[in-house]
């Protein structure tokens, strides 16, 4: 069952970087968006999370088309999604507990403090950081900062979690641990994740479905196990050349 869909979607700034995209994100699965450097992966994600209006076409959540001109529509969208940004985007002036609390205090400022505390500590426990709640970002390792940012993305119990290059800057062991955490979120909690990455090990470890972008177009959308059966030279080239980085 799909939870998000793009329909004849053009994304970009003064002109389209990607055009005519059509794909669906299925519930309780991990969908990886991949492509070579500069192909528009991050630009597409900005549109899917409501930060960049499409140049043409539509984005729909649960069959409801998002009105990018409506503040109320975007507010409702932000309650449905969580975002793990590439660098974690934790505020250095706040400890981990306060960072995770930010979305709650923005959207549910009348929440009782005890309920707030239970929710925050529950999410920190979920990512293995309950004992680090009082630490500041500068006191955390790169992997801990990513997991802390993931706890913040989870705090509003979103329908979809977006992860922008979650393994960027992490050593292979830490990156593999983050992959296992994302798999656990899918398997244990039925979460839907959309992951932008070029890390081939992560793609092979976590992807249920893939969206392959290149040359301004959609090259493939479907199950990862079917990725190499369509004999697309672009896909073959992408997976042979492992030096690509994100846009």
Description:
About 35% of the residues lie in helices and about 25% in strands. It is α/β, with parallel strands linked by helices. The radius of gyration is 18 Å and the shape is globular. Helix 3 packs across helix 4, helix 3 runs parallel beside helix 5 (about 140-155) and helix 4 (about 115-125) crosses helix 5 (about 140-155). The chain is built from 8 helices and 10 strands.
What is the CATH superfamily classification?
P-loop containing nucleotide triphosphate hydrolases
Order of helices and strands: EEEHEEHEHHHEHEHEEH
Strand order of the largest sheet: 6-7-8-3-9-10
The general outline is globular
Q: Portion of residues in helices?
A: 25-40%
- Span of the ends, CA to CA: 30 Å
Beta content: 25-35%
What is the CATH topology?
A: Rossmann fold
Using only C-alpha atoms, the radius of gyration works out to: 18 Å
Low-confidence stretches: 242-247
CATH-scheme architecture: 3-Layer(aba) Sandwich
Into how many domains do the coordinates divide? 1
Q: Please provide the count of β strands.
A: 10
Overall average residue pLDDT = 88
**Structural class from helices and strands?**
alpha/beta
């Amino acid at each position: 069952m799909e939870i998000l869909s793009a329909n004849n979607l053009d994304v970009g700034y003064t002109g389209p970087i990607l055009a005519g995209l059509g794909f669906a994100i299925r519930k309780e699965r991990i969908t990886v968006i991949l492509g070579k450097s500069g192909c528009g992966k991050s630009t597409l994600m900005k549109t899917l999370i409501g930060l960049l209006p499409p140049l043409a076409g539509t984005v729909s959540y649960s069959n409801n088309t998002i009105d990018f001109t409506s503040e109320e529509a975007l507010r409702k969208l932000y309650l449905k999604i969580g975002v793990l940004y590439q660098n974690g985007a934790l505020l250095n002036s706040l400890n981990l507990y306060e960072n995770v609390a930010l979305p709650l205090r923005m959207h549910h400022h009348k929440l009782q403090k005890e309920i707030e505390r239970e929710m925050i500590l529950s999410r920190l426990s979920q990512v293995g950081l309950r004992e680090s709640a009082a630490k500041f970002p500068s006191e955390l390792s790169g992997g801990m900062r990513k997991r802390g940012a993931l706890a913040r993305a989870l705090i509003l119990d979103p329908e979809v979690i977006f992860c922008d290059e979650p393994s960027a800057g992490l050593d292979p062991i830490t990156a593999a641990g983050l992959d296992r955490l994302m798999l656990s979120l899918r398997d244990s909690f039925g979460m839907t994740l959309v992951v932008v990455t070029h890390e081939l090990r992560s793609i092979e470890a976590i992807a249920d479905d893939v969206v392959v972008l290149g040359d301004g177009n959609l090259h493939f959308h479907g199950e990862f196990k079917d990725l190499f059966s369509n004999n697309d030279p672009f896909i073959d080239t992408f997976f042979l050349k492992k030096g690509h980085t994100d846009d």
